[in-house]
Amino acid sequence: MMRNLILVFVFLLGGTAVLRAQEDIVKFEAPAEDARSSAPAGKAVLTIVSPNADLTLKGSLYGDLLSGSTEYAKGERRKVGSDYHYVVTFSLHPDLDMGGTHVETLTVSNDYGSKDCSLSLKMGKSYTGRFEIPVELICVDEGKSVYAASNAARLRFISDVLDELTIRFNEVTLVKDGQAVASLPSYITSVRIEGDAVIADFNVAAHESASESFKRPRLSVSTRKGESLSFALAEGNSLDNKSSYQFRILRQVTKTQKVQKDLTFQEALKQAEALEAKYDFEAAANMYQEAMDKVDCPLEQKEVIRAKQNWMLLARKLDYYASVAEKRGAQFEISNQDSAYYYYNGARGFYNKLSQMFPERGSYKEKVEKLTGFIIDEFKNTVQKEVTLNNQVITGKVTLADGFIGNVAGVHIYEAFSMDVPKAKKVRNDYKCIGRTDAKGNFKLIIEHDHPVHYLYFYRDKKVIPIDETTQTLNVVLGEE
Fold first, then answer.
1. DSSP letter, residue 441
2. Burial call 44-60: b when 16+ CB within 10 Å, e when fewer
């Protein structure tokens, strides 16, 4: 289910800055006189140092200080080491001759937040300040699916900042600054860009595919802004024949939460539980961390508290994903019905998960019901197309082997874990029943696309039946070896 939900997850922070940064995530040092450097006579030089490559500087007198130069102000951005220096050279405005002092109100901002400050600049002096909003890349593993081509596997990367990304498979560059690389090793059959996705296809019959580095590659992404991230396939997965994996690359503000440092363990724990009761997930998670960090936190309680913290972090993520997906669905509703459906359906899934986590909170259940009705009414064709294309239908008939005592009616069909025939008690307790036969032994199974099934066990049979994504019909003889 989570894979199905995350499949429709949208960008966290893009050009429109869905989440506007709050004051507590802006790290700002107001410009102060810098004795280490000087300025030409009759001028003042202001430098804002930042790791963020997308700052805007605006002055109360001259507007955008970086877009161009005027008679009184000239701005530029320079790359210095890992930082960017935004340098503005001011000339004394003739109408503001206050004994050699230039008065200016400066606003420093990017898509995630801003800061204002007042400046009194003396001619011949240099001033330096710092502005930073920590931003990081994150990767959401959206799971495994089937790629129907022979001797092939696929990796798919989705991102709303795709034009900024460089993507690597081990040491091989697949995409450079948002553009597919033309020259590739022979075991990579193609790399192409489709919308906001990079699709890379691999030849699993190639000699290189037998290596561990091919089956379990090290994947990495980076940007020209210096952001980078490495990740791998989930534990137990490998790049095998007919396998396909999807990842979503996001840019996220790294938010820090101010907490009280003078609380005792019990006080911090009590505050965390109160915040959880108010469904303030992020604040509760941070306060649980505060409680665990206390020197008087009992060791035997840490695991319980950590579990509560992880529960809050998951809830916060789902709540955020749901609200953003719903907004993006509304944006695409007129221009792109397919995208609107995916976003709305994703929002419904996230809210449904939250409703299961917090059944006492009626607002999540109401959201699910409202979105369900809306999707059915507005996207009937898309819903039908999605079910038809993705769900696997298996039909068949059960008969009895000679001498096998039993009945073909009402035989329970279970999803099995392997080819090992399970014991009857274990089946009833641990296996998931996914269907049963009718009075004549006929059955119809629907295997949902987000939960592939590889083995079937018909109750009391002496064997387990393997299936794959191509299986459509089965004739099962109970009691036959």
1. S
2. bbbbbbbbbbebebbbe
Quick one: how far is CA 49 from the chain centroid? 30
Please provide residue 97's backbone torsions phi and psi, each rounded to the nearest 5 degrees: -80, 95
Nearest one of 377, 464, 381 to 417, comparing CA atoms:
464
Phi and psi dihedrals of 270, rounded to 5? Answer: -65, -40
Using one digit for the tens of pLDDT, what is the confidence trace for 315-370?
A: 988 888 888 888 887 877 677 767 777 788 888 888 888 988 898 888 888 888 88
Q: Which residues neighbour 56 within 8 Å (Cβ) at sequence distance 6 or greater? A: 64, 66, 107, 108, 109, 110
Q: pLDDT over 70 for what percent of the chain?
A: 87
* Global model pTM greater than 0.70: no
Distance CA 113, CA 22 (A): 7
- Amino acid 450 reads D
Amino acid at 230: S
CA–CA distances in Å: residue 372 to residues 5, 33, 345, 375, 445:
14, 60, 8, 5, 24
Backbone phi, then psi, for 383, in 5-degree steps? -60, -45
CA distance 136 to 89: 31
Structure letter (DSSP) for residue 307: H
At 470, is the secondary structure helix, strand, or coil?
Answer: coil
**Where are the extended beta strands (E) located within 224-364?**
228-231, 243-253
Looking at residue 389, its amino acid is: L
Torsion of CA 138, 449, 310, 223, to 10 degrees: 0
Q: Tokens for 205, please give them.
A: 């019959």
**In the beta sheet, which residues pair with residue 350?**
none
Residue 290: in which H helix or E strand, if any?
Answer: helix 281-293
Q: What Rg value do the Cα atoms of the chain yield, rounded?
A: 30
How many Å apart are CA 89 and CA 48, to the nearest integer? 12
Angle at 135 between CA 364 and CA 248, to 5 degrees: 60
How many other C-beta atoms can be found within 10 angstroms of the C-beta atom of residue 223? 20
Between CA 3 and CA 96 the distance in angstroms is 61
Residue 60, helix vs strand vs coil: coil
- Spell out the residues 6+ positions from residue 168 whose beta carbon is closer than 8 angstroms to its own: 174, 219, 220, 221
Distances (CA, A) of 217 to 208, 223, 225, 250: 12, 20, 25, 20
DSSP 421: P
CA distance 198 to 165: 10
Residue 214, amino acid: F
pLDDT digits (tens, 9 = 90+) for 235-287: 889 999 999 999 998 877 765 444 444 678 898 899 999 889 888 888 899 89
| Interval 194-246: pLDDT, tens | 988 999 999 999 999 999 999 999 999 998 777 888 999 988 899 999 999 99
